[in-house]
Amino acid sequence: MLTVVALAAVAVSARFSDGPISVFPGGPLVSGVPTKYGTVEWDRVDPIRELELQLENPPRSRITRFLVYEGAPYIPCAFCTNRLLKRWPRELQQDDRVILRVDGMLSEGRARRIPNDSPEYVAARGAHSIKFSPGSGALAAVEDRAAGLVVGAGRLAPGAEGISAPDSWLYRIDPR
Asked: In the prediction, which pLDDT does 144 show?
């Protein structure tokens, strides 16, 4: 019971914090150096495995994996059609403005969904597979195990039959 209360307290306090706390969505991203999208060296930050993504409306943030393909950041999303697990993809349909925090920089952009049947999707997902392939280090192995547990739990959630191509989306972050 104490564990449930503690987790609930963290979840509530995360909504008012400067960014997410672990798996709990956070408040608006505040700290960081405002950096124009065009001045961010995306290829330089690509070795970083995760960033913080904030939607403008509603102003909530989350930690997510990302990759850089052809000089642009991409955000993968699994279980995007499951309303119990993910709300932010539907919220992006209403307002695509986002803020990214990576390597101490805050950069504004617009999230554009890449069609699953496009050559860009196939190529960027290939880059994703390489970046997050097994054997890319001890930390990567731990992160992959944690991600695997989340995906496994997602497959057990009501309305989830696992990840299928339509449930696995990809967003390219473009400048505003």
From this structure: 52
CA dihedral 148, 8, 88, 161 (to 10 degrees): 40
pLDDT score of 83 more than 80 = no
User: Running DSSP on this structure, what letter comes out for residue 84?
Assistant: T
For residue 150, the one-letter residue type is V
Spell out the domain ranges in the chain: 2-174
Q: What is the average pLDDT across 52-75? A: 96
Tokens coding 133 = 């392939």
What the block records as the tokens of 152 is 């496994």
User: Which tokens in the block code for residue 99?
Assistant: 């803020």
For the chain, the C-alpha Rg in angstroms (whole number) is 16
Name the H helices within the chain. 2-14, 42-45, 88-94, 119-131, 138-156
Q: CB 118: neighbour CB atoms within 10 A?
A: 11
Hey, which CATH number is domain 2-174, 2.40.110.10, 3.30.70.1450, 3.50.50.60, 2.30.110.10?
A: 2.30.110.10
